Amino acid sequence: MITEGCFDEFVAQAHRVGDAGLTICSSGNLSWRIGDEVLVSGTGSWVPTLSKEKVSVCRLSDGEVMNGVKPSMESVFHLGVLRNRPDVNVVLHFQSPYATAVACMKEQPKNFNVTAEVPVHVGREIPMIPYYRPGSPELAEAVIESMKEHNSIMLLKHGQVVCGKDFDQAFERAMFFEMACRIVVLNGGNTALFTPQEIEDLDTYILGKTTK
Predict the structure, then answer these.
(1) pLDDT tens digits along 125-135
(2) The CATH number of the domain where 105 resides is what?
């Protein structure tokens, strides 16, 4: 059940994203599943200064707006990801500076495994989605399909999309993804990648730590 406190929390998380510099003005959008309904930032809203009046409530099953506030034009892929991923409750999308810089490069890196945090928290493989017009059915379809198997993706000439079980997990993925892109940009593409063996070693070490 969505309560007034849910709106307060959603707005606070939107401001957290803005304070972290992941989005500016009206770029970016976010969603949060609560039971059978989803809170989505409203169309044209400014995420860094989002107000409760600009938060849309949508029914998950069919996207029907429940409170009269029109959701972001990217709400189709937000809802689609949530329908296909019962383990996910939060989806974040924005044109964060360094991820967007990489998304606009003529040649993107082979992968983003430049720090241990990426293969561990973000994902060993981050799919590159071809450019589709923002808000288009083609973009929504591509995002939904790709995020069936991945938690983080890059939209070429656009930005990043991440998901998570809660706001903390999704935010962490977004920040580490942005950090990796920053390393790529500042190094001018001359970046040493983690080898498959090094990644396997990380996985073995972390798995051993979490099971003790």
Answers:
(1) 999 999 999 99
(2) 3.40.225.10
